[in-house]
Amino acid sequence: MKLKINLPYAFVFLLSPCFSQDTKFSVHGYLNQAYGQSDRYQYYGIPEEGTIDLRNIALQFNLKYGLKNSLVIQMNSRRVGESPVGEFIDDVELDWGFYQYEHDETLSLKVGKVPLPLGIYNEIRDVGTVLPFYRIPTNVYGEGTWTSETVDGVVVSKSWMPGEWMLDLDLFYGGWDSVTSQSADSYTPVRNEDATGFQFWVTLPGERWRFGVHSHRRRPTEAFDETIGRDHQDISIGSVEGEYEHFLFRGEYVRATFEPEGSSWKAWYLHLGTSFSEKWALNFMRSRGRITLVVPFFATGSGDYDDDALGLNYSFTPRQVLKFEYHRTEGYSVEDLSPDFFFEPPVRLDYFLISFSASF
Amino acid sequence: MPGKPFWAHILFVCFLVVIPTTLLTPAQTEPGYRIVVHPDNPGATITKKELKNIFLKRMAKWPHGEPIIPVDLSLDSSVRKAFTRDIHKRSTTSINAYWQKRLFSGKGVPPSTFREETAVLDYVKNNPGAIGYISGAGDAEGVKILKVIP
Predict the structure, then answer these.
(1) Which residue out of A12, A24, A38, A274 would a mutagenesis test of the B interface target, given it has the greatest number of B Cβ atoms within 10 Å?
(2) Which domains does chain A have, with CATH numbers?
(3) Residue A302's beta-bridge partner residues?
(4) What ipTM was estimated for this complex?
(5) Hey, which end of chain B has fewer CB within 10 Å, N or C?
(6) Domain B33-149: which CATH class?
């Protein structure tokens, strides 16, 4: 078993003041385990013969001293089935670890390897007990590709509560590791530097609806190609979320632009969930994505990625959830065929997942 | 499986099973609760908005400066369900999801949880900034009851 901990993050321990009598320590964790099988080909690590090697386990250590200072460390172990992305994932990794200073309940500063505020799901992408499906929408968030769960740097958060409204702003600066794909079966590690951006949420009175905007610019330092994405990439996400007693609605749209000029990734999903008792919930999701790639002096190609999903969830308790989900997908994310959208039509397949999630 | 029948099945399930079931869900009866604080707490009343902000950890200090320490009953407690319904206007499942998101995104830890009301009372008695809730009836010796106002 490999254990990867980036030693620079250990500095947060060194910066920590001596623990006082006000120190509070808590441990939390979650498990997200799935079995997946496709009806043909391999899709995001799910082969035709099925796999149980789909798993996320995390353990969080939270140390708070006094009212203003805390240190949070989360370790995780993640398995992505047969996906080639698995080559870049260690058995046990530092998920995130940061020092937080809370000036008051409305203003805080986090330094270290900090969860990246990006859309509805990025910070909770593996917490199965609060996700409608095993995975968050891959068209918008990727499977550990093009973006990251964390930023190595600084996040400043500020909240306002004018009347019954709530406004939340996160500003961040830093960098992160990710992988990027040339095709569905080939990935290359990338280091993103000088990432600067924000996430802004407006929550309407009653706290049923909230609307969000995220935007950032980053500079990939080891792009897979000398021409593509070499200089910078811009990502923007618009989010809307509505929650009622028995209904849940979520929708997000992402637009990523990169060089050469004219190249882009645009995707959206709409999710409608309904809970018809404390135990049962039904979820529908429709997701679409389109890549447009300009290759200078050669051609401009585009490809569509579709995923429609239906899921039924049963909650033994709010912290123990069993899910069954069925997906119909069409696109180019078929890992054992790796179709080229410049020359070939999209590939269609169905797959299902049965998963169990628990947290404490 | 062809495309249209797939979505036809979804619509079928939605309209014939889910929505009627949802609409027929009976209203829950809500037992009462009382808000308890340390005897030295100078307050006599507390608003529902203050309670909401305290138990979501959006309000960190009492007006007299003492740090607030909210404590919850466990998720399956009928008193907690009544308190959550009345103060947050949501189910305990929804509030649990709120805290799971906060916790695992590194944004905050939920209030400590006790299974028994006696444990809540003991904790509140021994911590000057603590606040909890107990059922509408029963012994509340050694703590102060705050009146909840709209």
Answers:
(1) A274
(2) 106-359 (2.40.160.10)
(3) A292
(4) 0.85
(5) C
(6) alpha beta
